Amino acid sequence: MIYEEVTSASRARRTLTGAARVLSALKIDGPLVVGLALIAVYGLIVLYSASGQNAGTIVRTLMRLILGTVAMLVLARVNPNFLRRTSPWLYAIGIVLLLVVAAIGHIGMGAQRWLDLGIIRFQPSELMKLAVPMMCAWCLQERPLPPSWLTLGLLTGMILVPVGLVAMQPDLGTAALIAIAGGLVIILAGLQVRVMAMLAGMAAIGAWFGWSFMHDYQRKRVLTFLDPQTDPLGAGYHIIQSQIAIGSGGVFGKGWMNGSQAQLEFLPERSTDFIFAVVGEEFGLLGLTLLLLLYVLVVSRAIYLATQTQDTFARLLAGSLALTFFVYVFINAGMVTGLLPVVGVPLPLVSYGGTSVVTLLAGFGILMALYSHRKLVGS
Amino acid sequence: MPAVRIKDHWREQHLFDQRALFAGALIALLTVVLLARLFVLQVLRHDYYAELSQGNRVRTEPIPAVRGLILDRNAEVIADNQPAYQLELVPEEVPDLKGTLKGLVALALIRSEDLDELLRTIRSRRSFDSVPIRLRMSDEDVARFAVRRFEFPGLDIKTRQTRSYPHRDLAVHALGYVGAISEQDLERIDPAAYSGTTLIGKLGVESAFEKPLHGTNGLREILVNAQGRSVARQGAFIPSLRTKAPTAGDDVLLSLDLKVQRVAEEALRGHRGAVVALDPNNGDVIALASMPGFDPNLFGRGITTAEFGVLQNDIDRPLFNRALRGAYPPGSTVKPVIALAGLTYHVVDPQQRRFCAGVFHLPGSAHLFREGKGGKHGSVDLEDAIARSCDVYFYGLADVLGVDRIAAFMAPFGFGKPTGIDIGGEKPGLLPSRQWKAKAFARAADRAWFPGETVNFGIGQGYLSVTPLQLAHYVSVIASRGKVWKPRLVSGLRDTLTGRLQRIPPVPDREVTGVDPEDWRRVVKGMIGATTRGTAAAIGAHAAYSIAGKTGTAQVFSVGQNEKYNAKDVEERLRDHSWFIAFAPAEAPRIALAVLEENGGWGASAAAPIARKVMDAYLLGPDGKLKPAPIPTGAPAAPPSKKQLEPTSPSRPPEQKQADTRTPPAPRARTTALSVSAP
To answer: How far is A91 from chain B (nearest CA, A)?
Structure first.
């Protein structure tokens, strides 16, 4: 609560405590950073258990967290005007890199998602998670809102090109997340409810149409995707085992490093996409509730920050970044608990692996930059 | 031209705030949905998932129970358990699989032609599973491997318990054997009770007493991971797991006397035949031999197709249990019961002498019924007819009795139905009757019963067939003067843990009623005559006890009219079967037995000496004198035989107390009862 005093009171009296002075100098937001840090620490604790007490995993994750934190701190200090100006370029570079990856994959006769830069492997699709909402916000900043049909068409095209490229890699999970990040910008820009309803209706009609033209085996595939339980040894195995893990955890859990589903490897992808189930097995309902509350805290704070920004670009971009974070959480938790079909979406800041940690923290860096570089008009 | 829209910053901010608020609400709602889902999984369905999780991580491994032993009446072990060695290989611990297998070939532990098959088997298993690559190792094999063991990492010799029969083929047809569990076995057993075991009782005592012998498996819980590999710990913790010790099977105590059994089998060796010896006081099976036999150890260690082929194709049929399943015409051994029927129905005067001229002429028939051995007996009474086995006397007696009365009288002696012995596989034999014949034949002309068939019935030929067990059972009924016991091989079960012996009481069957004690005495006297002055006089000589016996010769094929039967001319396997039934000591019988020698020819020369050896083995002590009578096990002692040996009052009791169907009718005039024809 020290913090609340700092931000509100600082505007009025400019009497800053030491901690607040640091925060202010770094252009970062205290509650948000605390929330993210708590999630990351919680994640490391769980990961140590889920990885089978593998210290190497922890070290590598710590390195990624440090890299992400650096990216966050750097981006938080960047002037939003610079971000605004670079948005189209970033988007263009992203598209080119996606094409390069596709070309390499085509030549190498094997689909791939990353560019080997020697030291690290870089996934252009991760860049697009940020570039697409930035580009959308950039497009909308000078136009009257809600967007016109023409603008809507333009934006749709801008979203679908990278989404299509990523989907061909094939990485449907990331493609969906990019589409959602872009879509959220449009919705936050005030897309009319009737337009949304109309689009939803069209999608429903399209789905029905497609269904009626499908062969039986195709329908079966769709059904297995929607309800993996029908295929207990194939697609359903993951979800059945993760439900067993979560359900057997009960209210209090089996205890740290004592979840039999996770420790005896019945739970597949236990340290990556299905780590949510490890939390549920070892720390129970209480552990999961705590984790979800931390996420909600971070998202709420991020939305609050978004509402405090002062121009359209900042608002739309910040809002999209905040909501995308929750979408990650909900899709992962929904998948692991059997509410949603299985798509490869990691649990933010907890799942092991990939560069998504860096991207996520970079996104929060941008969000904080957008907030902390407001022009403070005199009171 | 459409109106130019201009940006309204205040309105846009307001719109965004609205949307953000809505998004916040949606986030709250979705979070609640997630929490609700978690509540369902972790609280409402917790028990269900906890059980699934437990089932995932814990595998139950059976600990097979030790099979009970089988002991004879003197506590000599007939079936026990021995360790069998097998070579097992854990693929992931073997650095060079092919090289290792080649090394084993060099040690002559596996054959090079099996290499490909073995490699396939090993590769089809999980890398941490122990794969048996050589079963049934001999002691030399084990020794040969042991000295070179350091060259073969990942290989180990495992022991398992397997059934062993130290006396090999001795009493195999009584004992049965254990063999691999078959599809049919699986239908009648609980597979869970047999997990960890590959063997099950197949025949005889091993099969009939499978349940007590098998015992109860124990179990051991082991922690497994998702690959099924047994692991010691789960993450950082070692969970507690249950183990339950197995309960060993009960030891089965047989009534069999291995010493007698051995004598019986030795006496039969080289021949095909059977010996069944019973204790007429309680139905105990003293010996049950069917020769030739086979080595039951073959089945326990896993019989090869070649080995089984040899047994199955053997012309002497060693797998065939002649004692229980071989049905043969009883021949003259039925004469005592026919004589009893004649006496009981009062159709014969035992003192009246008849003249035997070697041929019987059935009135109204041109067929001549001959003496089996040819020759003629001259003047014979009932006792002589039994002792000297006069066919002509019994042709006539049977004709007078008629088929209905013979069949009805013989049934309680156990003919035509299983004796009820406590092991399975017994054949019922056949006791023909008018009703049976009416049903058994397809052609109407065959369904009628002909008087000539009755005449043959009287000397145990024709449709009548019995198993050696049935015949032993029958002679034991005569020995006990009508008492009927179901033959039993198993007299008790012993709990191996507590040592407590549970005796199985003898099982009485319906007694033979309505026979006058004097008639029993007469028939027995005739049978004693057979071993003192009659057909089997040779075996009665120099016996330390009195023997009541009866020879029998069962025709394998019919002798044509006017033909003379000469055994030497007939191929060995077409010769008559030789029977001998006896009990001893005749005054207080302790053993009743039936001996069959297939194609042995005349009963007196082939089967009777075997019977004498068996009786000597059972009755005589090491000093060659009759052993004192043992205290009967379990059964209430038979009523003293004093009364039976007393001379009965000359006036026979006319009143018949039993209102049984088998009760003989009022006496008929004896003078008209028999008609013995002269040639």
So the answer is: 24
What residue in B sits closest to A54 (Cα-Cα)? B235
Pairing status of strand B70-71 against strand B251-254: parallel
| Cα B675 from Cα B660, distance rounded (Å) | 28
Please check whether residue A379 lies inside any domain of the structure: no
Picking from B19, B46, B53, the nearest residue to A188 by CB comes out as B19
Question: Bridge-partner residues for B87, per DSSP?
Answer: B134, B157
How far apart (Å, rounded) are the C-alpha atoms in residues B143 and B420?
49
Q: Is B46 helix (H, G, I), strand (E, B) or coil?
A: helix
Identified catalytic residue from B332, B433, B491, B546? B332
Residues of the domain holding A343: 2-372
Q: Sign of torsion, CA B395 B398 B402 B407?
A: negative
Q: Could you read off the pLDDT of B264-297 as tens digits, one per residue?
A: 999 998 889 999 999 999 999 999 999 889 999 8
A338 touches chain B (CB under 8 A): yes
Q: Classify residue A378: in a domain, yes or no.
A: no
Q: Are B61-140+154-249 and B276-291+323-486+496-651 the same fold in CATH?
A: no
Q: How far apart are CA B582 and CA B543, in angstroms?
A: 13
Q: Which residues in chain A (139-158) have CB-CB distances under 8 A to chain B? A: 142-146, 148
Rounded Cα distance between B64 and B216, Å, is 8
Instruction: Confirm whether A285 is domain-assigned.
Output: yes
CATH number of B276-291+323-486+496-651: 3.40.710.10
Helix (H) or strand (E) holding B112: none
How far is B258 from B289, CA to CA, in rounded Å? 11
Q: pLDDT category, B91, cuts 50, 70, 90?
A: confident
Per the listing, tokens 């060259």 go with B151
Question: Which residue in this structure is represented by tokens 């991760």?
Answer: A126
Q: Which residue of B has its CA nearest to A303?
A: B20
What gap in Å lies between CA A7 and CA B10, rounded to an integer? 24
Domain residue spans of chain B: 61-140+154-249, 276-291+323-486+496-651
* Domain over B61-140+154-249 is classified CATH 3.40.50.720: no
Long-range CB pairs of A107-113 (<8 Å, 24+ gap) are A111/A168, A111/A169, A111/A170, A112/A169, A113/A169, A113/A171
A296: in domain: yes
Whether A236 contacts chain B with CB within 8 A: no
Cis bond leading into A170, ω under 30°?
Answer: yes
Number of separate domains in chain A: 1
Side chain identity at A260, as an amino acid letter?
S
Whole-angstrom distance between the N-terminal and C-terminal Cα of chain B? 147
More confident residue, A6 or B301: B301
**Residue B195 a catalytic site member:** no
Summarised one tens digit per residue, pLDDT across range B528-574 is 999 998 888 888 888 889 999 999 888 775 554 455 555 555 577 77
Per-residue pLDDT of chain A (379 residues; tens, 9 = 90+): 445 555 555 554 555 677 788 888 888 898 999 999 999 999 999 999 999 889 999 999 999 999 999 999 999 999 999 999 999 999 999 999 999 888 887 665 555 667 766 566 678 888 999 999 999 999 998 887 788 888 989 999 999 999 999 888 777 788 889 999 999 999 988 888 888 899 889 989 988 888 888 777 777 777 777 777 777 777 678 888 999 999 999 999 999 988 888 888 888 889 999 999 999 999 999 999 999 999 999 999 999 999 999 888 999 999 999 999 999 999 999 999 988 888 778 899 999 977 789 999 999 999 999 998 887 654 3
How far apart CA B640 and CA B662 sit, in angstroms, is 26
Q: Give the C-alpha separation, A224 to A230, whole Å.
A: 6
- Closest Cα partner for A203 from A136, A138, A247, A156? A156
Which chain B residues contact residue A260 at CB under 8 A?
53-54, 56-57, 234, 239
